[in-house]
Write a structure and sequence with these properties.
Recoverin, domain 1, 5 helices, mainly alpha
Amino acid sequence: MYAGQITRQQHRAALRSTTKGAPLMADIEKARAAFDRFDADGDGQVTPEEFKHAMAEMGDPYVTGPVAEAVIKAKDTDSDGRMSFDEFWAALQD
């Protein structure tokens, strides 16, 4: 593993923290609400900075810039450096 990369388990834990311990969200409305907590500017895309900030607000101040970048990169299927709702939803289905 390279610097700034996270394990699959760390990524899943970060995504699950938005669901208050639920194993996976099967309900798209709940997924949208969780996604919206990350999408601070409401543009439909989550940047690494938005992810880091949201995780800190939810009580995880240990998500660093490189960790946030790795989480976004792991689910960024179109390689635009951001995570869309569709990419977020797909990540929850893994």
